[in-house]
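#random but structural
TW: two for the price of one
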Amino acid sequence: MKWYLKYSLTTYIVVIGLGFTSQFTTPLYLEIPSFWPKPKYDFKSNPLTEEGFQLGRNLFYDPILSRDNTISCQSCHLQQTGFSHVDHQVSHGIDGKIGTRNAMALINLAWNKDFMWDGGVNNLEVQPINPITNPLEMDEKLENVIAKLQRSDKYKMLFSKAFGDEKVTSQRLLKALAQFTVMLTSTNSKYDKVMHKETTFTEMEQKGYKLFRFNCASCHKEPLFMGDKFENNGLKIDATLPDYGRIKITGKLEDKQRFKIPTLRNIQFTFPYMHDGRFKTLTEVIKHYNSLGHDKTLPKELDKPMNLSDNDRVDLVAFLQTLTDKEFLFDKRYSFPKE
């Protein structure tokens, strides 16, 4: 039995004063489990349609967004790994250049109000500008992307279906990408089925869930398993890759070494972990947190030792694996679009 709230959206796009024409489109609905909070994304400003979603999907997988047509969004955000990357600690971009941070998983973005590890972007519709223009990622200018898309018969058709005419603009590009990424919702893990009373945890998973609620849930809040704050989680600064976190955005000393609290959904497959990808396994992550509790400069959630035994760590990993949503990881709706 599915418990859902539907956010119904208009079947017509009518934007006055921006040159868009009215067009009949197919509405999409974001299905939300009944025990979940209301999304933070403003759907009224960017109504979801099948045509907009498919345009965004094509753009997401197309290296045309990069300077030399070699790097796509998917290059760092693979579906089977929760739209994150797994083959190196930090992202790799154009010309083999190495980035400075681990690419974050793109999961349940509709509930995010800030994006990037340091919260440097606060609107999903402008977030793609960062990787597109970053010299270590796609290293392209938006005007060049628009020019390339305008020369493409394929994209003239897709933009026309989504917006009523063939005009390609940066605003339409960004809205379409947002329509795809905002639909990347993961809501059907074993944890969710347990919450819906469709199944039960094993003994190990139940013990792990109890440990999680006592030690981890204050930051990684259910049911999204993420937080809307930035925190210092006790990681020592990597001297080879000095990253001081949110202070770069705010300039506030208290934000030094604070990073966004990411979602733990599909955490089994979104390794490596942390902003710099320093940990390869969940066991390493848990051992790190288990070593804390003696540094009073850390947030109160981490100022007491966890004192987990080896068996506790095994149980906690068992629970974290119940956050895996294979339906999401292999949903063909989110995969590379076939012509």
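TW: number two ↓
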Amino acid sequence: MDLELFKLRELPFRLSPDPEFLYLSKAHARAKAYMESTIWFTDGFVVITGEIGSGKTTLIETFVSELPNDVVVAQIGQTQVSALEFLQAVLVQFGFTPFQMKKAELLATLNRFLAEQYDADRKVLLIVDEAQNLGLRVLEEIRMLSGVDNSKEKILRIILAGQPELNPKLDAPELVQLVQRVRLRFHLNALSADDMRAYVLHRLEVAGSQGREIFQPDCYPDIFRFTGGVPRLINTLCDTAMLAASNAERGQVTVADVHAAVEELQWAEFARRPAAGPVRATPTQRAAPAQPPERTLDTPAGTPLARLLVMSRGRTVSERGLYPGRLIIGRASDADLRVDSPVISRHHCQIVTSERLCVLEDLNSSNGVYIKNQRVRRHNLNDGDVVSLGSHQLMYIDERPGTRVDADGDSASTGSHPRPAPLGEATQT
């Protein structure tokens, strides 16, 4: 492809993961925030599923690249292994040479390593990609590893990522104990038509388009029709279409170029492909916490517009749905959400929920309200925000489809603009 013809600095649709080409749909932002929650929770265990090419691996790569220095990571991508080989692979990631060790020695070495990292105030994270290939015995080993603790808290944090087949495997009766330890599960769907267009424009902008119209507007419906919004397929089709335009010595991609690319790739419409039917969205769900909640709060009937996970010392202690109206948070007995801590004011802050957004407001508290280590007086909450109140944290999970909130409280389609990452950023191929 002639990049000079398009006046671009680099190829915009490479299949290899590259954090510079960040685009976060609402779903990708939430999946990324859930991965990052494993660092907040001492017993973090998250499962992310998605179709082939939906961006799981790139989310993982970007998440890992942004981890602080006090996090030690074992990242496993080869999952067609025995239980013994899996334990060996984990230890290799931690710098050991375990190939002559028997299972008892493997487990002893791993337990000793986890204890040493805990004593050194380092967090240990195990990430397993392509987890749908794991056998039941390997998953049982992961369950056992997830239970390693120092009598007060879990030491190992875990992320499992895989294709949709992972969900029925986890729901098998033999793995009920494993699933009980999972904190969050999320299914990553393909991009919407609007998100797909924003995704293409963003990648072109990063590659140097400077707002120039590389793809004619009438290309996008056909790109969506043949890719179904799957990022990897979008990259393949757009790259091939740009090559067709380059061969014709044009600096702009036309519908004819898209059709030529489809013919070159021998693709059928996405909806007509044997494996393409509608993707069933798996709702996010949270397993019952290992520790009982401090307090069970009554909530109105119906589906909440958003949720709060209340955390203390890395553990979830309660969960609260947010419905239209005002929720007062504080130490007082008449607070709607009571947080029992001497550093929390009687009426510390409030969240005002409407159909469009949720607004956090400090009620002149003594010790303040913080988001990302910055004190805030009023803040329009976005999916994945973590609000710090003393030693407690409130993780905000927005259940509204397809909108984000800007700093002025205006809602915006996530298809029109890349949504700000709540806790970090990611890209996908």
